[in-house]
Structures are given as C-alpha cells and as structure tokens.
C-alpha cells in the first residue's frame, strides 16, 4: 500500500473526546458547616476523575463518516485512558470484520493515540522514532493532508455545541443530581446533530463530493 493509497483509504475519522462534568454526589454529609464529604461516594467520584486532566469527566469515542453522519460509543467514565476507551469500544475489530474478503481494506483515521500496535484497521499520522530520524517527504505530505481531514470531526463537535448549548458547560452534566439522564442527553444531542446534517447538508461531505443521506433513510422511516 503506497502513500497515496494509504491517504485515500482513511475516509472515516475516529476520535476520543472528553467532557468535564460536575463532581458526582458532591456535597457535605449533612446540613452543617465543615462537615466531611459523603464517604460512600468516594469510589464513584474517583471513577470519573481523570488524573491526566485533573477534573471529573466522561468521554466518548466518535466515528465520523464522509457523508456527515457520525456514530458514538459511550459515554464512559473519564478515569480510564483514551486507548482503554478505544480498546473497549471494539471499533477496530468491527471495521476489520465488515470488510472480510475484500480486496482492499479501508481504515479509519484518528489522532496519535491510535498508533497503538494492537490496532489493525485504524491508523494515525506517521511519526519519526528516535533522535535524528526525519520523516520522508511523502510521509510529511500524507500527514499534512490527513491533518486537514482530521479537523473536520472537530467541526462536528463545534456544530453540536452551537446547536445544543447544554453541551458547553460541565454544569449541564450532573450525574445523580438534577440531571440523572446526562448520558442519554449527550446521545440525543448527537443523534439530533446527525438529523440536522441530513436536513441541511454538511460542509465536509460537500467538499468530498458526497451527499448526506435523506432523513427518512437515516431514520429508516
């Protein structure tokens, strides 16, 4: 597989996104000042705390298609690493299985966390390993082109946030509090963004010469 074949085969974009949330079950163990936190919820709070980002969070893995439609795995607790989310989603196995016995396998493309050795159907940028190692010009060219494609999935999340401002603030993600349906809320916003793209088109798909599906076909009405 040459550089340009590799480039053209990465038409599906994958990413892991982390959203900050309100501390689960936050609050003192009573109605008096200087009371300790509720000890029975410490395990739950640690489960959603990211030691890398230093805040409580949930994360999703999103797979974006060239036609402006995307699919989501999660949300899951933000404590685990991004590569753990990738492994648990089973996305790599799924992409490989649906292309069995095909003469050429198309791959998803993601950021550098997808350079894990166990992944066979998802690829990332070329990297220069070791001191003094320089990428070939073909590799740099592919990285440049893939970087442009990679930006499109970020635009998708920006579009979802503009359409549904409830996704902008961690105060909107309060697990086990005022909004116990926070995980379902994120999935619904994701679904409705896909529906919006079906009705209004998608800028990225138009650049690739691909049309978004008709809403009735997407919902299978």
TrEMBL record:
GO MF annotation list: metal ion binding
Keywords, alphabetical: Metal-binding
* Superkingdom to which the source organism belongs: Eukaryota
Q: Name any cofactors this protein relies on.
A: a divalent metal cation
Domain (DDE Tnp4): give its ranges.
Answer: 19-194
Query: Is Metal-binding a UniProt keyword of this protein?
Result: yes
A Pfam family that the UniProt record links to this protein: DDE_Tnp_4
Protein name (record): DDE Tnp4 domain-containing protein
Task: State the species of origin.
Answer: Cyclotella atomus
Origin organism lineage = Eukaryota, Sar, Stramenopiles, Ochrophyta, Bacillariophyta
């Amino acid at each position: 597989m040459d550089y340009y074949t590799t480039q053209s085969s990465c038409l599906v974009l994958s990413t892991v996104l982390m959203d900050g949330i309100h501390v689960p079950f936050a609050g003192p163990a009573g109605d008096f000042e200087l009371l300790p936190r509720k000890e029975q919820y410490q395990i739950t709070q640690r489960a959603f705390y990211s030691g890398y980002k230093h805040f409580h969070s949930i994360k999703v893995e999103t797979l974006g298609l060239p036609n402006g439609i995307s699919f989501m795995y999660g949300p899951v607790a933000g404590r685990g690493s991004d590569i753990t989310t990738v492994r648990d989603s089973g996305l790599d196995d799924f992409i490989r299985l649906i292309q069995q016995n095909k003469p050429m396998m198309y791959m998803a493309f993601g950021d550098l966390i997808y350079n894990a050795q166990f992944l066979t159907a998802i690829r990332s940028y070329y990297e220069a390993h070791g001191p003094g190692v320089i990428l070939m010009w073909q590799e740099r060219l592919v990285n440049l082109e893939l970087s442009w494609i990679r930006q499109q999935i970020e635009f998708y999340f920006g579009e979802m946030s503009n359409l549904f401002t409830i996704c902008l603030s961690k105060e909107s993600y309060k697990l086990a509090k005022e909004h116990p349906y926070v995980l379902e809320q994120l999935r619904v916003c994701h679904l409705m963004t896909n529906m919006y793209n079906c009705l209004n088109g998608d800028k990225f798909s138009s650049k690739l010469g691909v049309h978004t599906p008709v809403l009735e076909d997407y919902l299978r009405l």
